[in-house]
Amino acid sequence: MELLEAIVDGMNYWIFIILMMIGLYAMITKNNLVKKLIGMSIFQTAILLFYISLGVKEGATIPILPHYYAHTSQEEQGNLVGSSDQAHAGKEASSATEGGKEKPSVAHAGSPKIDPNRFTNPLPHVLMLTAIVVGVSTLGVALSITQKLYTEFGTIEENEILDQLKSGDD
Amino acid sequence: MIDQAPAIVLLAPFLTAVLVVLVGMKYERACFPLVVLGLCCSAAAAVQTLLQVIEAGTLRYSMGGWPPPFGIEFRIDGLNALVALTVSTVALISAVYSKNRVPEENGDKISIYYTLLLLVVTWLLGMVMTGDAFNLYVLLEVSALTSYALIAMGTRRATVAAFKYAIMGTIGASFYLLGVGYLYIKTGSLNMFDIHEVLVAENLHQSTTVLVAFILITVGVWIKMAFFPLHAWLPNSYAFAPTTTSCLLGPLVTKVMVYVMIRMMLTVFDPLYTYLQLNWGNIVVWMAVIAILAGSLAALAQTDLRRMLAFLIVAEVGYMVGGVWLANTAGLVGAIYHLIADVFMTLCVFLFAGIVFAKTGKRDITATHGLFAKMPLTMAGLVVGALSLIGIPPTAGFFSKWYLIQGGMAAGHWGYVTALLISSLAMAVLFFRVFEYAFFGVKPAEGHGDHHPSGKGKFSEASASMLLPLLGTASLVLLIGIFNQSIVSIITDFVGQFNLTGSIMR
Amino acid sequence: MKALGLIAVLGTGLLLLAASRDFPNWGDPSSPASSYRLSRHFITQTINETAVPNMVTAVLADYRGYDTLFEAVVIFTAGIAVIGILRRYGNRDFIPAGGEVHLTPKQPDLIVESTVRLLIPVIQIFALYVIAHGHHSPGGGFQGGVIFGASFILLALARDLRTAQNWVAEKRMLILACCGILIYAGIGVLCQLLGENFLDYQILHRILPTDPVMARYHSILGVEIGVAFTVTAIMFSIYSNLSSNGQMKEGI
Predict the structure, then answer these.
(1) Do A134 and A101 belong to one domain?
(2) pLDDT for the residue A112
(3) pLDDT for the residue numbered C245
(4) Residues of B whose CB is below 8 A from A51
């Protein structure tokens, strides 16, 4: 019962781990090169799921400000030229010091008050956008290697390729 | 522009790579000068960065002007700057070396090949300079991706090796990514230094998650650096790749990964954590001992010259991992110094193997038959590299081994010291076998005339574009050895900030 | 091998599971990842600092713009790598060990062709919308670029590779990809020339008729367009190399 509870509580983690294990198993043990690549895809997707599930926040929406916020804020910037200069100066100052402090522009007059609990964390999404691209690229290159192997050996079974390598010298 | 030097180190090869694609479509001959020019800029900027670091201490460069941890920053200390300079120098040397080899081996894709070469250099430099854990993942995976392509452009055996590398490399990089994710879930940060601060401030070192993150990152990086039981991808990849590829990747990739390991262990996780709290030093050093012995013995069993050198890399990785995990200053300094020295001595022997292959078309060790007489200068280059690998003064290899042995003795790890000595012996056997073939010929029993092969052939040295890089590298090996003090002082400054006294371990 | 694989997989799985008890609960707003100043700053300050309502776009192209530059170059690298591995130039007939795969030549099909003719413009306009509207809604250079590339792939699938090649020849694709990278990196280098760090867009207010914050806003659009160029070109390049086995003659 306790195990069941643990599974239900951390369901996102369990799902990602099981997917990852399936992918890894296919990558290690499958004989067919394309099946290995399918395993690789599953493995990478599992990691994407893991990161994305980190970004979930109860009661929060997607990290895009609704029109209202965006609108007021842009008008602010249009009207108060001084305020953006001030933000700029604040940025300079904070990068000159150790950095990492909340910028002084938080406080400046009229900027929309945004409740951080209303929006999910954008960072995991950004990271996974990058990871997806990297995964796609790896898959593309690996597929082209597979295709080259097929034109050179006439098979995509790993053991047959190794047999051919053993029997004939290069 | 001076303060932009850290960015230029990276941007010069990167922008040149894009230009090479564009220019290479019309004027293939222009590729080579462009490549050399770009890498020269990069090396010059790396020298400038190193000088700045020596003068002013740690250098910080925020990409996009955002202060960390919001943006990505370069935080360059003595270690980064040294490794970056090493990488760009090796890249320059291999690029010069590639002048005749690339048209010969990949004649129809010269510009494509050079683009990939420049890009892989960019990625390696980026990995060395970046201060962001996730950025490191991107570079890790992309540098591997570029290497797969560079390797797969070789013979059909190389293609098989490239596939294996692709599978193992992806597993390694994914483990690293998972590790970063586990750190992120606990700290909420991605900047290496910021992660460290949060880990210390919130006393997260006790948490299981951080432990798992450490294991994942370490194993991922070990796969990438071919640490012994995880080395299966390496030997064939470097043995059958195009000549220039193995000259560039063979020395660099594993060493850069060693750098990443050091950075992760010391900067992200605390030395107190990695050395004292986990207390795995002993086990890992024994693993390193096995790696050293296995690598050296496997190298002895090879008949293919480049495959033999590839197994030497496996042994050398064992040296460095062992040195780092000895957990004392001498061991760490030795490992970092060995990292730099080893890049050049490995490069030296790989350049030699490339010349032999170019001249004779054979991969076998016996292809060196009679080379002392035919190519005295080339052999001189090999002798320096080989002596350095064996560890004979005044070459760089002697000093690095000296520090490593000192570290081993300070830690009281006699197994490691013995393994170093046995491995040196094995390398001596290996290289004297090569010298023997080169001096006396292959089968003195059959043909008696072979005792004096000098009578047979005239001098036929390799072309200047191949010979000069070899001689340059050989002299660099000597210079790094002779001026070891100044390099070691930079490394000591870096290691000193971690306050590793001998007492930390035992 | 199977047993070894199973042990490795189970070991990894258990290792990962071991930590999962230590993890925050699903959707916990006070988990470190959600409550750390990094995430808080991105949520509350993006609009003030970059004027982009879509935080993902702002973080992607500005705060972590350096990462994203490399992300675009990853695609570029993959395209070049696939060409390097597969492409065979020249007309000499190469017979692969696996035997040539011969497809029956495609008969023109009225339904398929008219559908594609209707669909492709819509797909391309939608792609442009996704690229240009990335500041305000989910989207951006990568997504739009992939959609745009897909329209060419659809053409190649419906007709044949040669027809698609007539539209976008191989060299033109490569030039387009390089241009995309150069646009992105060029914006970064321009910032350097104006005296700031690489990719520090706010300095561009000196040459754009706007204030520093809006300079970031507009540069992000420029960067996204560069990314879209590269992704479009490389997606199609990878497809055409893979589908024609590097010969660029007849595809699938």
Answers:
(1) no
(2) 63
(3) 79
(4) 181, 184
- Per DSSP, the residues of B67-107 read PTTTS-EEEE-HHHHHHHHHHHHHHHHHHHHHHHHHHHHSG
Clarify whether residues A57 and A129 are in a common domain.
Answer: yes
Q: Identify the top-confidence range among A94-103, B57-66, B233-242, C71-80.
A: C71-80
Asked if A121 lies within 8 A of C43 by C-beta distance, the reply is yes
Q: How many alpha carbons fall within 13 Å on the CB side of residue C36?
A: 28
Give all chains having 3 or more CB-to-CB distances under 8 Å with chain C.
Answer: A, B
pLDDT tens digits for range C194-228: 888 888 888 888 888 888 888 888 888 899 999 99
Helix crossing, C2-20 with B208-225: angle to 10°? 150
Give the residue, B218 or C96, on which the prediction is more confident: B218
Of A24, A123, A149, the CB nearest to B171: A24
Q: What is the residue-averaged pLDDT of chain A?
A: 75
| Angstroms from B107 CA to nearest CA on chain C | 11
> Which residues are registered as beta bridge partners of B76?
B59
pLDDT class of A97 with cuts at 50, 70, 90: very low
Band the pLDDT of B260: cuts 50, 70, 90. very high
Shared domain for A126 and A168, answered yes or no, is: yes
Which chain B residues are closer than 8 Å to A27 by Cβ? 167, 170-171
User: Which of B477, B291, B288, B305 lies closest to B380, judged by CA?
Assistant: B477
Count the neighbouring beta carbons within 10 Å of the beta carbon of residue B325.
Answer: 27
CA-only gyration radius of chain C, Å:
23
Of A24, A100, A134, the CB nearest to B142: A134
The verdict on a CB contact (< 8 Å) between C98 and A111 is no
* Per-residue pLDDT at B364: 79
The more confident residue out of C124 and C32 is: C124
Q: Which residue of C has its CA nearest to A110?
A: C48
Same domain, A130 and A46: yes
Give ipTM to 2 decimals: 0.91
Residues of the domain holding A26: 1-61+119-170
Average pLDDT over every residue of A54-73? 74
Q: How far is A83 from chain B (nearest CA, A)?
A: 19
Number of H helices, E strands in chain B: 20, 2
Least-confidence region, from B375-384, C103-112, C193-202: C103-112
Of residues B45 and B362, more confidently modeled: B45
Task: Please determine, for residue C35, whether its predicted confidence score (pLDDT) is greater than 70.
Answer: yes
pTM of the predicted protein model: 0.90
CB contact under 8 Å between A117 and C27, yes or no, is no
Identify the domain boundary among A95, A113, A131: A113
CATH of the domain at A22: 1.10.287.3510
Domain parsing of chain C, residue ranges: 54-89+108-252
Task: Convert A3-15 into a string of H (helix), E (strand) and C (coil).
Answer: HHHHHHHCHHHHH
**Same-domain status, A76 and A160:** no
CB-based contact (8 Å) between A71 and chain B?
no
Q: Is there a single domain that holds both residue A15 and residue A49?
A: yes
**Angle between the N-to-C axes of helices B78-105 and B464-482, in degrees from 0 to 180, rounded to the nearest 10:** 160
Number of domains making up chain A: 2
Size of interface B-C (CB pairs under 8 A): 161
The label of the residue with tokens 């042994």 reads: B315
Nearest by CB to A77, which of C25, C37, C51? C51
Between chains, do B163 and A146 touch, taking CB under 8 Å as contact?
yes
Question: Is residue A17 domain-shared with residue A93, that is, in the same domain?
Answer: no
Chains touching chain A, criterion 3+ CB pairs below 8 Å: B, C
Residues A103 and A139 in one domain: no
Per CB-CB distance under 8 Å, the chain A contacts of B155 are: 170
Closest-CA distance of chain B to residue A5, Å = 20
Specify whether the CB–CB gap between B477 and B385 falls below 8 A: yes
Decide: C71 and A130 in contact? Cβ < 8 Å: yes
Q: Which of the pair, C104 or A63, is modelled with greater confidence?
A: A63
Q: What pLDDT is attached to residue B257?
A: 92
